[in-house]
Here is the input.
Amino acid sequence: MVTRSDGLPPAALRQVQRSLLSARDDQLTRVVGLLDRLAERGSADALIAPARGRLAQLRPARPLAFGRLLFTPLDPLLVSGPKWSRGGLGLPRTALLPLAAQVRTGLGGLAAEVDAMIRGGHADDSDLVLRAGTLLWPAAASVLDGASPPARWTEATGLATADHTAIARCAVCVWSEAVWIHATMRACTEGLNPDPDEMRSWLEVATSRHPEPPGALLAVLMARVPEAAALIGSAVSPPASGALPAEAAIDFLLDRLEASPHPAAEVTDPAVAVQCAAALLDGLEAPGPGQRPSRKPRTERLRRMLDQSCQARFTETLDQQLLAPLADAAAHGEMATLEETARRLRRLETAGRRLGGGDHYDRMLRSAARQIGEGEPGSLVERVRLVEILAGPAAALALLRH
Amino acid sequence: MLALPARGLLLQAPRSAVFIEAYHPRTFRERGVAAPFTTPLLAGARLRAAPSRGGHTLEAIIPNPSGGRGVYILPWSERGDLCRPTVHDTRLGDALAGRDDLSSLCPAMVRQAGWVVAAEGHAGGAAAAAAQVALNDAAAGFAIASRRLESALARHAAGAASEPAARERLGGLLATIHAPEGAPARLPQLIDAVGALAAALPDWAAAQSGPESAAAQVVGTAAVPAHGSALHLLRAAVGRLDDPAALLRDWLADPTAVEQALSRAEWLLDGWHRLVLLWQAALPGPAAAVLEMAALLPVWPDEAETWLALPAGVAARMARRPGALARSRLGRQWSDPAIAVEQIARNERLRALGL
Here is the structure.
């Protein structure tokens, strides 16, 4: 597997990558902002590839570009070029730019419609992602279904011609069903649980429509919808999906978790990633046909790792993204941003409690509420609102009446 | 959180008795006024004045959170037995509970109080800005309506124009039901929006299956008579403006009767604004919205039969709706704290849209 970096010698590329790895959060965010504004990214993505894990945790507001929207449904399957292996479930990032260009060309005028819809939008705007995705994903699947590799495929990606067929098949399979998956994911975040029978029926139909590659759809669904992770994890899977695809999907997701237990995701809320991981582990450990005694040490270890990293992520976000910028945000009229951060923290905390650490979250939330309440930044009502989100209305009313 | 048994039972709450019953009020005042609460458990809750020891206290009527039939009825002061309302809701309820004129609680009073609390910032910055605009618009609308009323009265009934109480009470009502120059009044806009809902939902329902489709059909079916009847009541109210002298004469003789007649359309549609906003704010897949809308549909009290000259029993028949709508699917909304935080934020966005 070769990572190309047109225009930049390998040694220089490595030097830039090292500099970015040691850059401060704000510096890294600025560099990413600059790259995001490039009309043609070319091989610029290679520059930030080693920092991708950190970026996923920092979650700077990324513009919703055509390519990012296109590959949002495939996010749980993306792996770096060197980690990609033929026959596995993953999709190599090195293939994304050529695939995006191929889809864009095949879409004709529709691509411009998508561009217009997402102009000025951000990747964390789940409403916009679903609206624009509804237009783009099924159409992208039609374009790539049975398509030949684009010109210069091997030069651009370092992949063989046959790899294009496998990669395209995987992308087509996920794009074809992406609207349902994202709508279900969104409904879950609103508390509207998917009906288990409906989910089984959907899986039965979808996996029979797209049997190849085995487990790709299941892996994406388990990474997006906690209820699906629990259902498939406990092996209450639909008959048509069979045991093998589910096992392949579970192993792929466990490998990913093992490689990076950070509750991070580039386009989805980290809390959703934690919820799905916790649900998968719950499902695998629950008594039933899905339980494998041989897997228990692994799932227990993963649960501990995920719990610790979730607590660490929570503490870091609370300190760096809520408490530290409080005075600045109040001075610049940006308290609404902090309110959103506080809600994000509550989502992460609620998801994290499934893994343990309840005392830690309680302590941190109480302490943060006290600090905000006793501080000066912002108006009283603004501080009351932050306390209400973090610690509930009783604490907020006490502050208001103090 | 209290468990919900079958309807008609009396539950013992920690500090007070909370009734759950099949909810079919006789009058609109008994039905209560829809309040723009942001607490998820209080979605669709209504407030009413209940006689108490020579005065009145504020009472909350809270829909069964499981989506099934029945309501909780409890004094506002006891709401902590059922849920922990947001700061916004606590301020709103407390402000209303402390009013001297609580016995005449009406939709306009709750709306105005809601704007004042939102303008303080307790539903977020966007809702505060929207509430301030609404307060300014309402003040401007009132001033225009009041001047028009005064000038009409001056033409038709010399001397009566200086009646300040008439100007105050009737001016407020007219600003809601009748358009001042240029700007559409609030109520006609809402009636149009309910009409649009009635037109859109059948098509949407036909394209769906499962509980979402059933919910959309239920709401669409209820929107048709709500729209037509509100339009009829509004026209009757606006018609009375043709003879302002008679209107004033009637008001001086029986202000309550005149005010009720002018505000019937508003009472009838009270609660529909939230449904309209839920639909308008929904995404391409508004399944969650229609399920919530169906659970929050305002019931018609028996009094509607008198207002609309309907045969006896129509209101009761309209109140018969499917019981629990997708109860299990909505369940997590009430038990997951992170979802509650999201729901509050969503409800605050509705406030910013103009609730």
Q: What stands out?
A: DSSP finds 17 helices and six strands in chain B.
